[in-house]
Amino acid sequence: MQPLTVVDTIALRVRSIVAIALLAWAQGVIANPQYPDKPVRLVIPFPAGASIDSTMRVVGQKMSEIWGQPVVIDNKPGASGVVAVAHTPANGYTLLVCAGSNIVTSPLINPKLPYIVARDFVPVGHVSINVPVLVTTPSLGVRTVRELVALAKQKPGVLNYSSSGIGSPSHLTMEVFQELTDTSFVHIPYRGGAPSVTELIGGHVDLGIFALPSVIQHIRSGRVRPLAVAATQRDKNLPDVPTLAEGGISGFEYEIWYGVFAPSKTPRAIIEKVNATLQQALTDPQVVRRLRAQGAEPKPGSAEELAQYVLRDTERWKDIIRDRKIAAE
Fold first, then answer.
1. How would you class 144 by CB atoms within 10 Å of its CB: exposed for 0-12, middle for 13-18, buried for 19 or more?
2. CA proximity to 190, closest of 173, 212, 205
3. Are 203 and 284 in contact (CB under 8 A)?
4. Is the pLDDT of residue 30 over 70?
5. End-to-end C-alpha distance for the chain, whole angstroms
6. Among residues 253, 228, 231, which one has the least CA distance to residue 146?
7. Which of 68, 73, 252, 271 is the most exposed place for a label (fewest CB within 10 A)?
8. What are phi and psi of 238, to 5 degrees?
9. CB 133 within 8 A of CB 242
10. Roughly what angle, to the nearest 10 degrees, separates helices 285-294 and 51-67?
11. Which residues is 260 bridged to in the sheet?
């Protein structure tokens, strides 16, 4: 038997402790029946203007209407935002709204993060899914995926792509793209999605794969050129943009997902109430319409379903991260 790698060890830890978290959640704890009777703070570990920030300003407004209490969006970019929630009282008044990268891939890449997801958090519910879209600067001169792959093979290690950071969806999806197409691009990571997209718009980088809400307005304005979406079918916002499979790259479908997590030991009754309110907000016709206009797809669901997403993504990405030798700088 081969010895376990650090990535394998972390994956095992995630699987075991998520199962423990679900068991504790199922046991139930008595909570304040009047919850919430004061403002609820939603901490987002991304800067203002990020796709999940825009989404939660719509969803949070509806949750506030349902509860009759303010829902405050608190942007704390980076790991510090995640840690801040882990260290707050488990009373439901401070919750984490984050991406799968915060919960799954970042811990797999960096075992020295100042938080352990499965120890410090319990799942509450999904928020949304964003379709990744492969875009280039128009000056690159390619209009299809096949043209991009051909150019990359003519110039191995010359073309570059931007991402919102090591381990982010925009980084890992490009790693998979390179694996499937046998190409080599230079990775230029930035601190967040906004600057990585800005650099692409400015022509300082050649391409990238981003969540649709981050680039949809720039696609519409013509400042970036979409080549394909990494989904099983075309996106309703970009009906003329093919899927990667249609572009000749099969086996590459990926969802960028966002969810709500609570500090560990949060009472079951509170988790159930937040989940119910979240699902009510995400099925409100006006909320659905506004999120889809941003390029986001609402995804109401149970805490158990979110936990299963964490387990599924852990299994998927641990092999890719190990095989591609992706590690924190």
1. middle
2. 205
3. no
4. no
5. 30
6. 228
7. 68
8. -130, 65
9. no
10. 170
11. 97, 125
